[in-house]
């Protein structure tokens, strides 16, 4: 197990370097890193050259990348154009997005699994067909449509929620945005749970559990669910990284000042340091979340051994 | 009588039609007795067992008629919760493939101990101690350490011992073993069979041994019931049946056992295939494959004729068959 973790951590290095190099090249080579510094106007050539020299942008790209990475490992992600350190932006943005992600994951776990169990045990009944149809709708409608629709109905038309989230972004305000962010994954969790449950329900060990004279609730929770939820848990685990980085649309709709919002602003304003910095951290989150999921898999299923 | 099944009918409703899996099975098992149920796949052996135990998948399965008396009560008339209490505690089952029949993500100790926790209300700790005792009873080496292991960490024979231990945990009055040795190596088969026979004697429990292996049956069974197309076609004490079968199907089964004194000669095989349960032949279901079939066999379904006081044959010509 220990050796497996070490190997996986070592494997992360090339993935991390590759991903950050890619985003670094895209922003610095394909875009113009100083274009955003002069605001709306075009920079005059003399100023642009001076800025580039000051920022070290006249040096070869590989050297720029190494310098940047060196600084990242000392905790310096550079400064945004308004002079604010990128780490400061992260310190305000990440807690907001983490809260939003927690709300979304809770929806996936509680609602997604509950619906999956309900439909999995009532296969072919009206409730099953109904939920299945609903998940299909949720999956096929893009998030921005669901998001805007809920904002319009709940926020504007009926006034149940505030259409725009305050900068504090407390948990209470994040319920509807969290639901929107979770919606597609939630539908997948429902379907995955349903299929997995229906499949395992016919398995020999469930028949054994019934033959042992166990009460139905024990057969379902201890024998059927315990086995059926293994793929679901791994799906949800892997989804954490996707939700944190994928909240751009949701955060835009509800004006949540989290990671997605900062990334969007960074891209629109060609704010190089912000974009590269945030993406770097997201890559790390993704990698660690995936490692944890793989380790969790071995805990849930004793047949899996890592060496 | 410990178990008495009367005129049991089970059918499966599928998209293609109704499969009549069990068509009027009647049989009895006394305390301490071993009944071997013999037949090809699809003859209704396992379905009968599942219906008796109450673990039939319903739907698509359906018990259309019959009674199952166990210790004087008709199990089919009990409420599900009452029936559940009988299951596992008084009436247990051993399945064929222990690897798939045991839960892969729970330790064997948990799965054995569960019987005591659920049926006897024991604490987890006491149940664990009983699990170790059980594992020692079925002679699993190093039981105290292995109680924490998972099913996949055991060999096939050891897994089947755990399966047996689980069925015998609460000392049931009757155990149904559905092909308990089919999935095992030949060398292990004998050990497991011996263990099962030994434990049966120790607990004086009834045993229904479902099998298609005639070799296994001869040593351990008291009586044999031969099934074909969902009916019992011959029922007899084991020695009488081996000496002189009273049904051509039984004769065919016996003749298809390889024997040393017929070495070098072609092995007999019953011609044709088992019937499709959606289109069971008219009259005697065996007539298309029967070497003795005559016109009456195609039209009239033979009742179970009394060959002897404890022997029956569902063949119009049982006398001729018995004479060989």
Automatic annotation (TrEMBL), chain A:
It is found in: Cell membrane. InterPro entries: BPD_transp_1_N, MetI-like, MetI-like_sf. The keyword Transport applies. GO terms for cellular component: plasma membrane. Its main location: membrane. GO terms for biological process: transmembrane transport. Pfam families: BPD_transp_1, BPD_transp_1_N. It is a multi-pass membrane protein. The chain crosses the membrane at residues 12-31, 96-118, 130-154, 174-193, 228-254, 274-300. Keywords: Cell membrane, Membrane, Transmembrane, Transmembrane helix, Transport. Residues 94-297 form the ABC transmembrane type-1 domain. Belongs to the binding-protein-dependent transport system permease family. This is ABC transporter permease. It comes from Streptomyces shenzhenensis.
Automatic annotation (TrEMBL), chain B:
Coiled coil: none annotated. SMART domains: AAA. It is a peripheral membrane protein. Residues 31-231 form the AAA+ ATPase domain. GO terms for biological process: peptide transport. Keywords: ATP-binding, Cell membrane, Membrane, Nucleotide-binding, Transport. Pfam families: ABC_tran, oligo_HPY. It is found in: Cell membrane. Belongs to the ABC transporter superfamily. This is Methionine ABC transporter ATP-binding protein. It comes from Streptomyces shenzhenensis.
């Amino acid at each position: 197990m220990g050796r497996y973790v070490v190997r996986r951590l070592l494997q992360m290095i090339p993935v991390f370097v590759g991903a950050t190099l890619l985003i670094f090249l895209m922003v610095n080579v394909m875009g113009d890193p100083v274009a955003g510094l002069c605001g709306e106007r075009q920079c005059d050539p003399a100023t642009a050259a001076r800025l580039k020299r000051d920022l070290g942008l006249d040096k070869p790209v590989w050297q720029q990348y190494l310098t940047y990475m060196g600084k990242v490992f000392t905790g310096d992600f550079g400064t945004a154009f308004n002079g604010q350190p990128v780490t400061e932006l992260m310190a305000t943005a990440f807690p907001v997005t983490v809260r939003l992600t927690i709300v979304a994951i809770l929806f996936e776990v509680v609602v997604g699994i509950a619906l999956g169990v309900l439909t999995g045990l009532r296969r072919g009944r009206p409730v099953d067909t109904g939920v299945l149809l609903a998940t299909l709708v949720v999956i096929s409608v893009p998030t921005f449509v669901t998001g805007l629709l809920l904002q319009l109905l709940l926020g504007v038309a009926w006034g149940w929620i505030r259409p725009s989230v305050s900068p504090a972004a407390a948990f209470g305000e994040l319920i509807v945005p969290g639901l929107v962010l979770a919606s597609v994954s939630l539908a997948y969790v429902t379907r995955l749970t349903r299929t997995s449950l229906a499949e395992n329900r016919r398995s020999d060990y469930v028949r054994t559990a019934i033959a042992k004279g166990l009460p139905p609730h024990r057969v379902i929770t201890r024998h059927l669910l315990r086995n059926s939820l293994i793929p679901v848990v791994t799906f949800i685990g892997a989804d954490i990284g996707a939700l944190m980085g994928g909240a751009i649309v949701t955060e835009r709709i509800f004006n949540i000042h989290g990671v997605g919002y900062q990334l969007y602003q960074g891209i629109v304003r060609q704010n190089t340091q912000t974009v590269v910095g945030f993406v770097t951290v997201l890559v790390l989150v993704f990698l660690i979340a995936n490692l944890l999921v793989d380790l969790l898999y071995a805990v849930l299923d004793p047949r899996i051994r890592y060496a | 009588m410990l178990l008495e099944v009367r005129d049991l009918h089970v059918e499966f409703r599928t998209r293609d039609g109704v499969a009549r899996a069990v068509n009027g099975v009647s049989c009895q098992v006394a305390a301490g007795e071993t009944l071997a149920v013999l037949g090809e796949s699809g003859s209704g052996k396992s379905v009968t067992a599942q219906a008796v135990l109450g673990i039939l998948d319903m739907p698509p399965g359906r018990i259309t008629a019959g009674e199952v008396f166990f210790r004087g009560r008709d199990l089919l008339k009990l409420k599900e919760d009452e029936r559940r209490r009988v299951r596992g505690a008084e009436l247990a089952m051993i399945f064929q493939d222990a690897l798939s029949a045991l839960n892969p993500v729970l330790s064997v100790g948990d799965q054995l101990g569960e019987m005591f926790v659920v049926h006897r209300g024991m604490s987890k700790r006491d149940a664990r101690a009983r699990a170790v005792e059980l594992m020692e009873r079925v002679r699993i080496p190093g039981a105290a350490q292995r109680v924490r292991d998972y099913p996949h960490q055991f060999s096939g024979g050891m897994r089947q011992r755990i399966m047996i231990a689980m069925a015998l945990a609460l000392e049931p009055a009757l155990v149904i073993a559905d092909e308990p040795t089919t999935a095992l190596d030949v060398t292990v088969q004998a050990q497991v069979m011996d263990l099962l026979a030994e434990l049966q004697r120790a607990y004086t429990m009834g045993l229904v041994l479902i099998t298609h292996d005639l070799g296994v049956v001869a040593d351990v069974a008291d009586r044999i019931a031969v099934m074909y197309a969902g009916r019992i076609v011959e029922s007899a004490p084991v020695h009488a049946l081996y000496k002189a079968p009273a049904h051509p199907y039984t004769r065919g089964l016996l003749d298809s056992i390889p024997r040393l004194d017929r070495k070098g000669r072609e092995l007999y095989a019953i011609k044709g295939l088992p019937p499709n349960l959606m289109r069971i032949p008219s009259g005697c279901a065996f007539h298309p494959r029967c070497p003795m079939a005559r016109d009456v066999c195609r039209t009239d379904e033979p009742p179970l004729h009394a060959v002897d006081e404890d022997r029956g044959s569902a063949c119009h010509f049982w006398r001729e068959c018995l004479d060989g």
